[in-house]
Design a protein that fits this description.
This protein has one domain: predicted glycosyltransferase like domains (Thrombin, subunit H). The chain contains four helices and six strands, in the order H-E-E-E-E-E-E-H-H-H. The protein is α+β, with helices and mostly antiparallel strands. A six-stranded antiparallel β-barrel has the order 1-2-3-6-5-4, surrounded by four helices.
Length: about 140
Amino acid sequence: MHSRRNAMQRQHPRAHTWFYLNHCIDGTPFLARAFNLSTGGLAIDGLSCPQAGAHQTVYVEFELPNSEELIFSDVEVVWQSNSGALGLKFKTLAPRYRRKIRQYLRSREPGRENTLKQAESTCNAYARSIINPVQVNL
């Protein structure tokens, strides 16, 4: 799976970022943190989810930092690290969401990542997790 991970990184410009998102496995929502984003997919640290299998399809929903529009898509698990991070490839991302992600990527200054503290204050996925708490294992 790592060769596919490297190929995906070459195909799409990426931004290192931190924001919370919800992802659903078999209809059950879990909170995660995205740490890498491109128009082709994203990389996440699963905070409270069981391990997803290779090529498994899951559902994600998230808001970009400082945005209030909910972006959602089915995604395919394309790589998995020993630490539990997952690489997810967008499967059903609407063109308008892809444009929004592209605009966000273009607006990022090289080397200027948002912090986890900023992510908490700009993401409603995190707020929804407080209202409907899930078990978080760090």
